[in-house]
Specification:
Blueprint lengths: L12 H27 L8 E5 L5 H10 L3 E4 L2 H14 L6 E4 L8 H7 L2 E5 L2 H13 L4 E6 L13 H12 L4 E7 L12 H18 L5 E3 L6 H6 L4 E4 L1 H4 L5
Parallel strand pairs: 1-2, 1-8, 2-3, 3-4, 4-5, 5-6, 6-7
Helix pairs in contact: 1-2, 4-5, 6-7
The structure holds pyridoxal-5'-phosphate.
């Protein structure tokens, strides 16, 4: 865990360096979020940064926490479980929030509901039902988003735009689950500007969804390291940022 000398006299120079590095990166990201909000006439408080920690070590996540990040995203239950436990131990005084953002198999639904505050990436009604049952067993409400595969890419999960509204209607009938919005991972395009139509489309679908599911269905989880500014201009409320915060991932 990286801690500044004032708070912890035992912090090593490596830890202090790492904390400085993360503060600088986070400052840059916040500045760009704020500029994108300004360009689109939105308050900065509209946009929540999710630090994506897949493949990232507990030490580096600790440095991000030290820099002020509190909300994290993981896309594998097995990888997340030990990290979440370890970070709860090394920083018991900060309350961290974990969101699930990857493909979730139905048989891991219960574990996911134990570990995560919110699931961004629900891609079938069957999965939503499993999550709803798990939430009932664990006596909690579960906010979820539906993932939409806008370009119909075979390599990605997510509902087709055509099947979305039917699923929204079904999910709206679940008892423990609150549909709070939509999520997408659009195609990777070199020029982030070319991704804009996908973000715009997700927002239109979100408006349709909220006309069915109600006013609580307002979130748009869209935008990653290379295109989050465009996503914010198109209405993103959660941006999921990995490499811009943690550096490039070892595969
Ligand atoms: C890895 C990942 C991200 C973060 O990607 P970067 O390009 O590193 O910012 C965001 N969303 C999902 C679903 C991911 O799997």
């Amino acid at each position: 865990m990286t801690i500044t000398p004032a708070q912890h006299p035992g912090a090593t120079s490596h830890e202090i360096e790492l904390a400085d590095e993360f503060r600088a990166r986070l400052d840059r990201i916040h500045a760009r979020i704020s500029d994108a909000c300004q360009r689109s006439g939105r308050p900065t408080s509209d946009v929540k940064l999710v630090g994506v920690t897949k493949t990232v070590s507990v030490e580096r996540i600790g440095a991000a926490i030290e820099a002020g990040v509190r909300l994290f995203g993981e896309n594998r239950v097995q990888e997340a479980a030990p990290k979440i436990a370890e970070l709860a131990k090394v920083s018991p005084d900060v309350s961290l929030r974990w969101h699930f953002i990857g493909h979730l198999q139905s048989n891991k639904a219960r574990r996911a509901v134990e570990l995560f505050e919110t699931i961004h990436s629900v891609d079938s009604f069957k999965l939503a039902e499993r999550l709803d049952r798990a939430a009932a067993e664990l006596n909690r409400r579960l906010p979820i988003m539906l993932e939409v595969n806008l370009a119909g890419e075979a390599s990605k999960s997510g509902l087709s735009p055509e099947s979305l509204i039917q699923t929204v209607t079904q999910v709206a009938g679940l008892l423990q689950t609150d549909l709070i919005g939509l999520m997408t991972v659009p195609p990777y395009l070199e020029n982030a500007e070319d991704v804009r139509p996908y973000f715009r489309r997700l927002k239109q679908l979100r408006d349709e969804a909220s006309s069915i599911a109600g006013d609580a269905c307002l979130e748009l989880s869209m935008g990653m390291s290379h295109d989050y500014e465009v996503a914010i201009e198109e209405g993103a409320t959660f941006v999921r940022i990995g490499t811009a915060l943690f550096g490039s991932r070892q595969q």
